[in-house]
Amino acid sequence: MNKELKLYNLVLNKYQIADIELILNGGFYPLNNYLNKKDYESVVSKMRLSDGTLWPIPIVLDITKNILDENNITIGSKIALRDHEGFLIATLDISEIWLANKENEAKHVFGTTDPYHPGVKNLYENIGSHYVSGKLEKSELPKHYDYTSLRHTPETLKKEFKKMGWNKIVAFQTRNPMHRAHKEIALHAAQNNNANLLIHPVVGPTKPGDVDHFTRVRCYEKVLKYFPDNKVFLSLLPLAMRMAGPREALWHAIIRKNYGCTHIIIGRDHAGPGNDKKGNPFYGPYEAQELLIEHENELGIKMVPFKMLVYVKEKKEYIEIDKVPSGCTSLSLSGTELRRRLENNEDIPEWFTYPEIVEELHRVYPPKNNQGFTIFFSGLSGSGKSTIANGLLIKLLEHGKRRVTLLDGDIVRTHLSSELGFSKEHREINVKRIGYVASEITKNGGIAICAPIAPFHEARISNRQLISQYGAYIEVYVSTPIEECEKRDVKGLYAKARAGVLKGFTGIDDPYEEPENSELVIDTTDISPEKSVDIVCDYLIKKGFIE
After folding, report:
1. Which residue among 175, 216, 433, 460 is the active-site one?
2. 414 catalytically annotated
3. pTM, two decimal places
């Protein structure tokens, strides 16, 4: 609590920063505040504000119960909304506080309560338990230090259009690098509607695992030269995507209307997150288009529908998939296949993308033998994981191609987690700290070797998800039975645990949840440390991480 100002300072996360910027700059018009409870409930259930205005996505300020209680935040309180550097963005005079019904919100907004959906997962795991609303008073827009010349408010972008004499503008929404098919879609949409083109990529939070916006913007800048002169304009949109499929497509249309666009391209599975665990898509391929057609009379912006394009070899051009002539060969390349080829340094065909784009993507997805990765050992005390980890460290240092860092359990406890105890909560915090450090090492092209006990599924899964965004995550379960571990116990820790002297010892009176999907499983009972190290090295060679 800041006593001088008598305000609670709420530091906004990246999702909240994106939302408040678009509230304050007019991108979310007619919204000029966070939704109150009445509007929130109406938006969730009906895709409309309580006055009937079309609005499909709830824009609310979330806060945790702990923050509310610890800081005595109630109706009538004023909170200062700040960025992570402490700059004041706005103040909020709270007039309503209510408990979020996340299951109901997920069901209506995302059409599913499946936490495998990234939007649902974010809602359940990262959004606070309560929503607050009230009068929002602007201080200043969030600060950006990147691509400042490409960032426009709705007002400044409209001025740019007027300066260029543009009256009809087609918006192209994207969260991925543009390849040849995307360029063709965007260009045809503009030409067919006798309009100019706005490439308007999202540079706020998108789907986990997406290419970072710095790389994407460099790709957009390089693809501009392949469009006709004076027909295309690039501007960045600070939007936090929800991946809500049809509802989000409707939302994107309203936002682009606010930015001065007359048309928006809506393609196949627009703003969809892909498939569920069973491989079934969360949304139909053209559900988004159908929803915009349903509301086109009140949207005030025209949808330009596009189906999936494929490259037709015989014609040497891109054609809608259902218009490919009989007997012709159609070619396409999935995002997964593109990444595989990049990582294996295989050829990327020129019919798919431009050489400049391949060059940029190789920075993000270098060949495996230049990629950062994490090897995460888990197992009981005395299982041999630290011995293997130290042996592997020496082998990789001998290899000498990349920097290698060992994050052993004891080392981390000494230098990173000395204040933590051995409760379940503290053990999970310790393992997640290891995961964060490993992710930074991996992101910067190094090799992280981690060797904690890591007894709990949740923390290991969290680390896998985090690190896999930046490189490979290789889990090695050292499955040596507890009986063998006890035989090796030179410190007498197991004996003390069995005697009740040492409490909370993993494997005795504290659980070890065995990994279920490890890349490697090694039982060191009858295998030498040298052989165990060789097993890991052979795996790395086979997968192309080392030569």
Report:
1. 175
2. no
3. 0.84
